[in-house]
Structures are given as structure tokens and as C-alpha cells.
Amino acid sequence: MIPMQHLMHWLTQNPLGAATLLYMASVAGVLIYAYFEPRDQY
Which of 15, 29, 30, 39 is spaced 20 to 30 Å from 23 by Cα? Predict the structure, then answer.
């Protein structure tokens, strides 16, 4: 596991990488939410 300080330093040096990481995390969160959401609402 990489240290948090190293990760923060990398993110400040790579804003595009940070944006991609945030995008991937949000997409994964939406997919997980959609997968685990109860189907009997509709």
C-alpha cells in the first residue's frame, strides 16, 4: 500500500491522473449503487 503523502504528492503533480481517478471512482460508485439498488421500486 502506498503512503498517503506519496499519493497526495503524485496527485498534485498529476492533475489529469487525479481527475481520472475521481472519474473512475464516481463511475464505480454509480455502478455499485445501481447493482445493489432494490429492483422492486418500480
Answer: 39
